[in-house]
Amino acid sequence: MYTGLLHLHNSLRWLILLVALVTLVKYFMGWFSQKGWMKSDNILGILFTAIIDIQLIVGLVLYFGYSPITKAAFQDFGAAMKNADLRFYAVEHFIMMLIALALVHIGRSKTKKAISARRKFGLSLVFFGIAYIIILAAIPWSRVIA
């Protein structure tokens, strides 16, 4: 079960990065070209939010249920804080991804409430862009490359 969930979590990472990048590029082009907010722009925001929500659920199941890394960290949290690898998964990755998720949801909410297309694009760019940077920073790249 752990291996399957971990593969799903890893695969969703690439999907999130791709959808977020496409969304950010489209919003950037919409903001600079002063185009109207289209149905496809809304769908991209919904898709990005939905995928990151699914990733959260898979991540939480791993974090609290199946991950031997977090199980080891929870055994002795004080010692885990002294181990960079354990600390990364038990605290840093978890917190940064929650912050990114919150930013995506805040951005989506503010975008829905905005009236002008330019404001919708601008708000989405800011919130989704910051979330994207945090996601990139929170990915365990040493495990991806190795």
List the helices and strands and how they pair.
Blueprint: H1 2-33, H2 39-66, H3 68-75, H4 77-82, H5 84-113, H6 117-138, H7 141-145
Helix pairs in contact: 1-2, 1-6, 2-3, 2-5, 3-5, 5-6
What would you say about this model in short?
This protein has 7 helices and no strands. It is mostly helical and 146 residues long.
How does this structure look, described?
- Helix 1 (2-33) packs antiparallel against helix 2 (39-66), helix 1 (2-33) packs antiparallel against helix 6 and helix 5 (84-113) runs antiparallel to helix 6.
- With 146 residues, the chain is mainly α.
- The protein is built from 7 helices and no strands.
- The chain starts with a helix and ends with a helix.
